[in-house]
């Protein structure tokens, strides 16, 4: 068999990883000038991957707000789906949901078995990413409180990725690292992945930062507690996973398996012994007192270990007028937490209580061991199954009336056991949930109407909980598109929600030396906290109104995209479930039995398990603009092309094959003669993409309107040559009101004016998220900026001022495969990429001051943001098998 040219392989690898959209060459390239003939292009093979930005790639008539092609994905510097979602966080945020949830994820417009199925996929395997508004979630049977992200994967791809990363805090004291191996095989209708990941981070103690000394006073001398307390605990995590997708007749089925173990340790403070000396003891002066002794047993620690095993599947039907899918999952979580309470003083205290003259509390003691550790153990089993069925019911003049029906069940059990201060308690919780949802879409006007397209949808859900009875949801959405560039969305939702089973029955954990800020006294204290579940919680009721728009500016340029977006959301929640936002006087007055203080008013302990408040109201405007500009690629230099030619001829001569490359190609793909090269981007994809767009337009009918912009703009279009990207995305969130009513008859807590949502202050009226990036010729940079405005909180010693706070993160990366000069000289670097990350570039930390301009104890900047600036360096190597390279070389006309 003919030996492959290593140089040609490098060139193909560069095109494969730089421009995944085009695996095939093209035959419709623009005709060159007669005096500069170009080599003939091979025909597009039948299985070529030709994909354009199509707003109909998912169910429904709502267009994508954002479309990113492979070049745009590479411009973010993300190497996996998980990193890509993190980079796109400003575009994926939603003000409608209950908070903390990731968007609904789809693959090729179909449901998946879960986030684990996609989390570790390499970015090179993604053709395109589409971001849709929350209303599209209804088409897939989900609630309209999460955005929808659709990943279009390459049809053929085969790679093994090895990635290693090291990181450290520039202020010292904390370091960590990560090692990951992924294997991916993509072929038509099939997908196989294997993943191994190991991650470790060291602990960071208080003495490694500028934390004010608050000594623990003992008879044996003051103890500096800072070496015995961690600001950030140590952790270790091991993950093994696999995903297998195969055809099942005309349908497709996917199974996802994963095992994960996470361990960690936190230090809680020094071990001290408190001895109670009776008044009539020979060592007392007629008055009882407590004597604190240094036990000398090192720090008190909390160790945790969590093991998770999961299996999930999804079966999706083939495309058709009616579609169906089923998903199922089974997850088992075994969690254990062990906490030191202090030295065992039982024997010594018994002697003191019996007035033993031989037991001198001031004498020399040896505390042999700590008391039996508190232990919290829980086993959670979560099993779920659902089915979805949807399609066209009938036709109206404006279009099809579509329906989506989804139903299923979920069974969750939590068995927990607590052993606290020698008292054992067992709790077993069980919940079965049955649900059914329906969504109906009615097109009222089509695009040809005088006011544009108009559609309305109605959705509803009924849930039956074994422990809460029947809960319901109703909602409606209006979608109006007066022009192809402008879209308005309005929605209303009323839903009843049950508290999570973990909020009801998580095992109780006691921290004997928690650091808390007591807003009643205005002091930071060390007190005992109790966390866990509360079985007395009630269901909440939520009403949400939303009005939003997306507008793409009509800029007549092939290289520019500018878009605007805005969402106004007003929500009201009755009986919201929450832990205490902060330890304020208002909270303590409403829940006095949860606080324990001594006679002098010092806080001794507090119960932080969740409660129901009466009502919460919130009004938020989230708006932003997005800008992108294509950068024309720079052609390879004459020296680079000549190096490719010489190496190619040398390698072919060593193989005993002196024939020139097909069609006279003696250099990297698309090189041609240096003085005549067409500016087409990497992989010569311009002509092929134009042909692909034409073919797809014939198959799909008239092209869809581009729709609203967002994210990095509609990069998926074929508007001109490919190359680098310059982009910016800025999102501004304005909170107009945020109030909590603790109980009827009490004044509401205004989080924008004097009340604290947490120990980190109130609600910032303004928040800004910015993402800026540049990517070209294999080099890229991404800057992330996050900022929040200042807040002021009332306390027992006057107002506390929480200054505005912002961070800047930087990513610099190099994809050596796209550097043809590097590939010509060092082909062994094919598939190698490097990344330098700097989190919190300016080493900023929050600043809190009291009315005198001083920093209160417990609000030291290093305590609020312990790590500070963190630098990471990553080396990533992507291996493409020789057999796969041979196939792609034959496709591109390099011969076999």
Automatic annotation (TrEMBL):
<feature type="compositionally biased region" description="Pro residues">
    <location>
        <begin position="31"/>
        <end position="42"/>
    </location>
</feature>
<dbReference type="InterPro" id="IPR037066">
    <property type="entry name" value="Plug_dom_sf"/>
</dbReference>
<feature type="region of interest" description="Disordered">
    <location>
        <begin position="26"/>
        <end position="45"/>
    </location>
</feature>
<protein>
    <submittedName>
        <fullName>TonB-dependent receptor</fullName>
    </submittedName>
</protein>
<keyword id="KW-0472">Membrane</keyword>
<dbReference type="GO" id="GO:0009279">
    <property type="term" value="C:cell outer membrane"/>
</dbReference>
<keyword id="KW-0675">Receptor</keyword>
<keyword id="KW-0732">Signal</keyword>
<keyword id="KW-0998">Cell outer membrane</keyword>
<feature type="compositionally biased region" description="Low complexity">
    <location>
        <begin position="664"/>
        <end position="705"/>
    </location>
</feature>
<dbReference type="InterPro" id="IPR036942">
    <property type="entry name" value="Beta-barrel_TonB_sf"/>
</dbReference>
<feature type="region of interest" description="Disordered">
    <location>
        <begin position="651"/>
        <end position="724"/>
    </location>
</feature>
<feature type="signal peptide">
    <location>
        <begin position="1"/>
        <end position="25"/>
    </location>
</feature>
